[in-house]
Design brief:
The complex is a heterotetramer, with two copies of chain A (259 residues) and two copies of chain B (302 residues). With 259 residues, chain A is an alpha/beta fold. Chain A is built from six helices and 18 strands. Chain A has three domains: 83 residues, Elongation Factor Tu (Ef-tu), domain 3; 114 residues, Rossmann fold, CATH 3.40.50; 53 residues, no CATH class. In chain A, the strands form four sheets. A seven-stranded antiparallel sheet of chain A has the order 4-3-7-1-2-6-5, covered by helices on one side. In chain A, a hairpin with a 3-residue loop joins strand 3 and strand 4. The longest helix of chain A has 14 residues. Chain A starts with a strand and ends with a strand. In chain B, strands 3-4-7-8-9-10-15-16 form an eight-stranded parallel β-barrel, surrounded by seven helices. In chain B, strands 5-6-14-11 form a four-stranded antiparallel sheet, with no helix packed on it. Chain B is built from ten helices and 16 strands. In chain B, strand 1 and strand 2 form a beta hairpin. The longest helix of chain B has 15 residues. The chains are: A alpha/beta (259), B alpha/beta (302). Chains in contact: A-B, B-C, C-D. At the A-B interface, strand 4, strand 7 and strand 14 of A face helix 1 and strand 5 of B. Bound molecules: flavin-adenine dinucleotide (2 copies), flavin mononucleotide (2 copies) and FE2/S2 (inorganic) cluster (2 copies). One flavin mononucleotide (FMN) binds next to strand 6 of chain C. One flavin-adenine dinucleotide (FAD) binds next to strand 4, strand 6, helix 1 and helix 2 of chain D.
């Protein structure tokens, strides 16, 4: 059976403006980069990356952007949600010095991978990009695990002024990076892919999801690659061949929407 | 390899495994992957005149012995979807355009467009168990169904298949009605009405509350539908429902199906399920000294 | 223990698990065993006016996810069977006499006899999927069904339950019709039409070829039937179909059932299944701070 | 799944007038006293005790008494039948000197138990009862395994003249018997039960069977004891409390038929 398991909120924490992390009891293993389908009964069920994981507890970190995330935002300790998963493939960390580039809420889905890299004693440089200072989060958490953290904001309110991808370009020039891992706006990731040339590259994609079981076809990119099952993490070599990447996604009806 | 070719009306299939409607057929890429994985024909998702978002999630869950879904016929509308079909122009595999509507006029419009975009046949979805006004309401209204089929048959030259529901009582009558209206084949079955309630919240899990039950659990239901139709009505049948292995497919052929469609098994065995099933059919045929599929079709009642 | 008592019309049940019709109810001894195993009520096998041998074997097989049967309504006839019911006179557990016939007159005769032999209610089997002239033919004829129910209601004073089939399209209409004819409760569902073909011989395994599908696989079908009726028609409902554990029963209560019947699970878990399920319901209720069953009934739509 | 497995007849052998043993490929273990449901496609499915068993082959021995047994009787090597099972409990052999009493085709279902007793080096006295000489079978097979075989015929055409139960009465007087195992006409078994007093007693019953799954209730005796699942072998202590025993069985419609 692959149905939601009901669990209740244990903590709800404000990370930044409009961004929260909630945690709940949900036992089992998770690979960094995997996601849950989160059911808010009576509202919707949406995909959310696992941003926090212990043997018995898990957490997600999200921006309040619509009905479902608003409902999640308003949940209090003890409120019930349904979780199924984890789904998807997750990252495979290779090399000695890894560069992580998280744009927007993208850092939420990179967090566990970064912590895993540090646990494996790999060197991790992390770029967190946000529109503006008060949307930044996980800076402290990432420093705490021993990563080198760089920050960019579009408006320059803190850190590097400009896109995270531009900051990454600088880093790539200065340091020897073995592999790049990214999650964020797709055009940013596409730009980054251009910059990284032969360096191994993995990006986590977001597509509208329904089944998350690899069945309905809603989330497909390229030649039927299911973001929910074959992804959400794809190698740069694969992404280079996919013309959808950075260009369009599909809404719930299947219509193409340009990024 | 034995000969796995089969024929349904004017369509020649190199093998009898078709992709069922609504699964991995949102865009040209997914359909191409299913072709590459060995599907003998592709049925598109059910397309209507206008874009529809379908229901909110949860739309699909897996139960103990099957899948439960209530998508709500999401689709971008025939004009946008036409491009996906056109992009498949070069494939040699038959593409069957599934369409839904509430009346004959809209069905005709859709069928003509499907033919125009290059579909090799149309499949009328008059059996969706969870979309109000479309689906079952149409399939269980004998005179409306007759009108729809005849109108379409007068306007297009590609074959017309009609997909029916196991949720109707007088299955054989309905099948006879479909045959009398000159449809070229019957597709049986669509999903069975079902529901799953979450015990902790007391709520039906699907946003639409009720949904359609598919997958392994419904095979015996599909087999009996195909058998009852095959025994009583002289029309080609495409069997669907719970087919996961080559042996499941063979059971459908024996019941009277000339081809099969595969949906939920993509969850159980991945997109390679088409190749797997073809291989299993081939092995079974050879082990039992059959040279081709035709010898098997209807074995259970002939 | 929480309070597992429930009420259906005039019947008081000490617990909501009833023995389903046609299973372990051939004679007083088997029914007594089911009572000893904790059944809260017993439904007899479906009894007609005259003895019937039923179909030849195979009459019952187990499939991957359920049971398939075509017994053909074997029974010794009401007069002989009456003795089995009479012999249960002293039990405090309600005995519900299941009856089948092709017309109102015979149904009335049977119902009167059932009451005379001591049955505490009658259950009209108008939903057997594999017995010609009886069963589904009756259940899907609205005016005949109304006539049968009203005639019986005028002649006996014990409650009248009507057992319906999931094989009908317009379930809610049928349920409303049953309610309008003054029946006291609806029993949903009887088995789903199904078939299994043996691949080596190419033959349907059941002697009757098609049969009725029961057991685990059909639970989602039963749940949606109970839910749809409960939501639309104001009549007590007894849920049946695939109930194997206490949680299955609770899902039926939430869907709107006031009691449940258990058949195939006797194969899965033995006759002690009644005790097991009651214990599991009790545990669940306690864990979730319910004091009794009533609080749970219809939770999914209230 | 509990559906017939199709197999083909390997041998068909005439044991006596109207009595045949057929063997077929059917792998798996069997406890002596268990039975199969034997499907003759297009005809019927009937219960048959396992009378022959190796790791891969099994056999049944039956009298041609009606449609189904006639069809079995006429099967030739290579013909197909369907087998499901084995079902039922089988005998439990206890003690050092065991008496087996088989009436009619009853010896067919005792045969494996007798051979098992001999393999365990237990002493086995076997009474084979038949109406008349040319209906006797398994005499040689039973001697071969080292059992002491006594024969009775109703008409005295060979061996003791009279019922097998009467012959058993004599044996019980002369020898120290630890346990009695019987299969045959129910009145014979009932008489035997009277004779054996405190000696452990097990009898194998026959009832009309449909599901053989313990579900349909067709085969019940006493307080809902299912011959197909709780039996077919019952202890004397149980049978003494069952008023049906030796008195009546039920036909396919459920009507009582007196023996
Ligand atoms: C694999 C994956 C992991 C994700 N991880 C995170 C995360 O860690 N943190 C985070 O804040 N967001 C994450 N998202 C995005 C998140 O799912 C959407 O923001 C959320 O669904 C919005 O729902 P809503 O009802 O609040 O907004 P709506 O008002 O419904 O829509 C806002 C946007 O969200 C998208 N959306 C709505 N429903 C879905 C759906 N079922 N599947 C995908 N997109 C949907 C819409 O396309 C729309 O663009 C992830 C998405 C995917 C696919
Ligand atoms: C556990 C068990 C083990 C048996 N083992 C043997 C055996 O080893 N050798 C042997 O010769 N016989 C055995 N029998 C009896 C055998 O099953 C019947 O003789 C056979 O079913 C007759 O079928 P028919 O169609 O040839 O006869 P019919 O003409 O159908 O009937 C003849 C008699 O067989 C009985 N019978 C028919 N169908 C069934 C059924 N489904 N279940 C039970 N009885 C039935 C009828 O009650 C009738 O009295 C066994 C019976 C049981 C219950
Ligand atoms: C997720 C999902 C979506 C479906 N969408 C459609 C659809 O749009 N049109 C249609 O005719 N059938 C649809 N179906 C029904 C299938 O085509 C098929 O008839 C049914 O699932 C039984 O086959 P299966 O057991 O192989 O899945 C859908 C089924 C599923 C599981
Ligand atoms: C062997 C068998 C015999 C049955 N006989 C009857 C019957 O005589 N009358 C009836 O109304 N239902 C009969 N049924 C249907 C059951 O009462 C019940 O509705 C169905 O099996 C679904 O419940 P379950 O899944 O718990 O078995 C029979 C079912 C089985 C399996
Ligand atoms: S969401 Fe259905 S295939 Fe990915
Ligand atoms: S034959 Fe059905 S219970 Fe024994």
């Amino acid at each position: 059976m692959n149905i939601p398991t009901i669990t209740s909120i244990v903590t709800s924490f404000n990370e930044a403006s409009d961004i929260k992390t909630i945690t709940f009891t949900y036992p089992g293993d998770v690979s960094p980069g995997q996601f849950f389908m989160v059911w808010i009964p009576g509202v919707d069920e949406i995909p959310m990356s696992v941003s926090f994981a212990t043997k018995t507890m898990k957490g997600i970190t999200f921006r309040n952007v619509g009905d479902a995330t608003l409902a999640l935002y308003q949940l209090k300790k003890g409120d019930k949600i349904g979780i199924r998963g984890p789904y998807g493939n997750g990252f495979s960390l290779k090399g000695k010095h890894l560069l992580f580039v998280g744009g927007g809420t993208g850092i939420a889905m990179l967090a566990l991978a970064i912590e895993q890299a540090r646990k494996k004693k790999l060197k991790a440089t992390v770029i967190i990009g946000a529109k503006t200072k008060n949307q930044l989060f996980f800076e402290g958490r990432m420093r705490q695990c021993g990563a080198t953290v760089l920050v960019s904001t579009d408006d320059g309110s803190t850190g590097y002024k400009g896109y995270a991808s531009e900051l990454a370009k600088h880093v790539l020039k200065e340091k020897h990076i073995d592999a790049i891992y990214t999650c964020g706006p797709e055009q940013m990731m596409k730009t980054l892919l251009l910059y990284c040339k032969t360096i191994p590259f993995q990006a986590s994609l977001e597509r509208y999801m329904k089944c998350a079981l690899g069945l309905c076809g809603q989330c497909c990119i390229g030649k039927g690659l299911r973001v929910c099952l074959d992804g959400p993490v794809f190698d740069g070599t694969v992404l280079k061949k996919i013309k959808d990447f950075g260009v369009y996604h599909r809404d719930a009806s299947g219509r193409k929407i340009l990024f | 390899m034995t000969d796995l070719a089969t024929t349904i009306s004017a369509l020649q299939l190199k093998n009898p495994t078709m992709l069922a409607s609504g699964i991995m057929d949102e865009d040209v890429g997914s359909m191409q992957r299913m072709i590459d994985c060995g599907a003998g024909a592709i049925v598109t998702k059910s397309i209507g005149l206008h874009p529809r978002e379908g229901y909110l999630n949860p739309t699909v869950i897996e139960l103990e012995y099957g899948i439960l879904n209530a998508m709500g016929l999401p689709n971008p509308g025939i004009d946008i979807y036409g491009k996906e079909i056109k992009a498949l122009e070069k494939t040699k595999i038959p593409i069957i355009g599934s369409i839904f509507a509430a009346n004959a006029k809209d069905f005709v419009t859709l069928a003509i467009k499907m033919q125009h975009f290059g579909a090799n046949a149309v499949e009328l979805n008059v059996s969706c168990p969870h979309a109000k006004h479309y689906g079952l309401e149409v399939g269980s209204d004998a005179s409306l169904l007759r009108e729809i089929i005849s109108s379409i048959k007068h306007q297009i030259h590609i074959p017309v298949f009609v997909k029916i529901s196991p949720n109707i009582m007088n299955l054989v009558e309905v099948a006879q009605n479909i045959k009398n209206a000159q449809a070229d084949a019957i597709v049986a079955i669509n999903t069975v009405k079902g529901m799953k309630i979450d015990l902790e919240t007391g709520q039906p899990i699907l946003a639409n509350k009720t949904g359609g039950y598919s997958g392994k659990a419904i095979k015996p239901i599909g087999i009996r539908c195909v058998y009852d139709i095959a025994q009583n009505v002289d029309i080609p049948i495409i069997g669907v429902g719970g087919i996961t292995t080559g042996e499941d497919a063979i059971e459908y052929f024996m019941a009277g199906a000339s081809a099969v469609q595969i949906g939920s098994a993509i969850y159980y065995r991945g997109p390679e399920v088409f190749k797997h099933i073809c291989k299993e059919i081939d092995l079974w045929l050879r082990k039992h000294n059959y040279k081709n599929l035709y010898e098997l079709i209807g074995a259970a009642y002939l």
